[in-house]
Amino acid sequence: MNIPLLYKEKSFLNHQFPTVAALNDPPTIYEGMLRCEKGEVKRLADKKVWPFTEYVQWQRFRFELPPEYPLKPPLVTWLTDIGHPNIVPNIPGAVCVSIIGENWRPNLKLVSVVNALYYLLSDPNPNNVFDHPKCLEAAKICREYGFPKMRRNLGTHEPDTAKFNIIPVPAVPEQKTQAGDVVKFTILRPYKP
Description:
The chain is 29% helix and 13% strand. It has a four-stranded antiparallel sheet, covered by helices on one side.
């Protein structure tokens, strides 16, 4: 892992997105917040249309850089409960953005990852939806309101009979502790009146 590159990216990321912070040193784990503040999503949220009402609220996310970074993309976890076609909260890797998957390139920066997460809130893609009840319901409503908007504005809108892909939700890896791991827990004392 290129440590000077990590610090350079951290500095640029903090400049562009002050609501994103590194949690460790060297910076390989980040948490941040973002929300959609304008456009069609904001207009629908103002009309109290779910799920758009959630996209204008502050949303928390985390991404972790693998040891192979920048050759491999960050692992993104959405931390806020949200109804979104492309996000399953609290499952690492359950954020469907092409640049942190098949379209990752080592020259992409962490700022690009955060921009892509913002783009998910401002223009959800109901054509690639996770196989999760909340995601499927959000996708249905997003399609009813004509999303994705940007793709249509760029002239690549598919016909109304466009097919959509249902993506399996990534499995949550089983976490086992080993000797030397730090495990946090609380000891409850019996109630004594």
